[in-house]
Predict the structure.
Amino acid sequence: MSEYSELRKETIAKRKALSVSERLKRSDEIIGRIMATDEYKNADTILLYADCNGEVATDMLIAEALLAGKKVYAPVCLEEYKLDFYRIFAIDELQTGAYGIREPLKIEYLKLNEGDITERTICITPGVVFDRCGHRLGYGKGYYDRFFSTVNIKHRIAPCFDFQITECITPNETDIPMTMIIEG
């Protein structure tokens, strides 16, 4: 997917160019839209990234989901570009891990198992660029596509800023599209 490297670079630069207050204001609007969806309202389990690198801020969503009594899991980056998710009970449990991303502690009994995934599970998925068909460009390592290829998560929701939307992304055979893109 090297054909998209320049688009990734430009989009990340635009995210980083947002002031902190603008990023948080726009993030709150996006998170509000996510929380207004039936998918979120009906969710019992939420797989959710901790933002970094100018991504849509997710701390408010993490806090709201925890307050609502939803089970919240955050990802840990592993070798061979794989992800495991671990349940968290508070935002301050997250610590800086791989790539400078905040990650939960790897406590085995808190690890997400396939049996924890239900029809009401949603995954809030990060990305760099998206198109209106749900295709996404992440950072190019395939972590989320590998994860989605091993589990059946019906609701894959991507929050993004409006400038992260492009006309068309040509997916490869291992790309798994989002079921919903929420921009702001």
In short: The chain has five helices and ten strands. The first strand starts at residue 45 and ends at 48. The chain has one domain: 2-183. The two ends are 26 Å apart (CA to CA).
